[in-house]
Amino acid sequence: MASLTRTLPASWYCSSPLYQLERRAVFLKGWYLLGPVTKFQVVGEKVGYEVAQVPLAARRMSEEPRDIKVFNETTGFELRSYITETGLVFSTISDEAPPFDEFFPDLKPLIGRVDFTKLPYRRSVKYEGRFNWKTMVDGYQECLHCQYTHPSFSVYYPPTFYTVYNHKNFSQHVADPQKPEDGLFLYFFPNCTLNVYGGGMSSFRVCPTEKPGITRMEFDYYHQESGEKFEEYFKFVRQVAMEDYELCEKAQENLEKGVYSEGILNPEKETGVAYYQQRVLELVCAQHETERESESRDIYRSSNRSDSVASQLVDPAAS
Ligand SMILES: [Fe+2]
């Protein structure tokens, strides 16, 4: 039997030094979905974000809807951003991110099928939750919990057909292959999602704070309608979001109790979780290795330097 993928250890959901390592290994090297171009309606208006303690602002520069620039709010410098043909705006938060096409090499053909600009921006909601950013992504990346946690959602999107396709740095979830424009859920590594279902569209960011057990959730909602129909959609999708929120707080409590350490993932139903967790593991281990090597080089250099200083003090002839 092929070996089963193990989950990340519970300690990775509770440790501050581990989060700092994740920040350097994963977050500073990523690309982030800010929203479709319709999020930036007013020319000149600043739309603020904060990803892994980097404050950024996106601004529509002219009447041209695709003329959007993103700036680091602390330095004032422009950050690299990218707008896909179907209107999704992505941004980096540091120079350490690779080029967009290298980060998402096979994203364009897939998202090319849906026009993300047809639904106007309606509303945003944000709040903090007592869970690690990965606790929320774990839940998003599988639908085993859907039937029990989301009874109303499961009526419209039965888990029977639910499939996850993993690609480099993103996953595509399809609730029903017969309806690719409804029940389409996209996860962008590490912490952004785009969800087309219930007649509208939402996007959320799972923003880590400096405390590993606290995460800020940020949701943006899009819908053709603005009145009652939008409120009906909003009520439906908020219900699903709150069900996930409660589940994450409970899961985090258990992760912090120290009883559970790690488990194995379902090889069919949890491939989305296995994919993104392995990606985190790979990047964190590589970062740790690089930092350890450069640290030992520094120690070697400084000990050589102090040896030569010491020898000069003892034996003036050595100089
Ligand atoms: Fe859920």
From TrEMBL:
Disordered: annotated span: 293-319
Aromatic-ring-hydroxylating dioxygenase alpha subunit C-terminal domain sequence ranges: 118-171, 182-283
Annotated metabolic or biological route of this protein: Amine and polyamine biosynthesis; betaine biosynthesis via choline pathway; betaine aldehyde from choline (monooxygenase route): step 1/1
Reactions that this protein is recorded to catalyse: choline + 2 reduced [2Fe-2S]-[ferredoxin] + O2 + 2 H(+) = betaine aldehyde hydrate + 2 oxidized [2Fe-2S]-[ferredoxin] + H2O
Comp. bias regions, Polar residues: 301-311
EC number: 1.14.15.7
A GO molecular-function annotation: 2 iron, 2 sulfur cluster binding
GO biological processes: glycine betaine biosynthetic process from choline
Function: Catalyzes the first step of the osmoprotectant glycine betaine synthesis.
Family as reported in the entry's similarity comment: Belongs to the choline monooxygenase family.
Protein name: Choline monooxygenase, chloroplastic
Organism the protein comes from: Clohesyomyces aquaticus
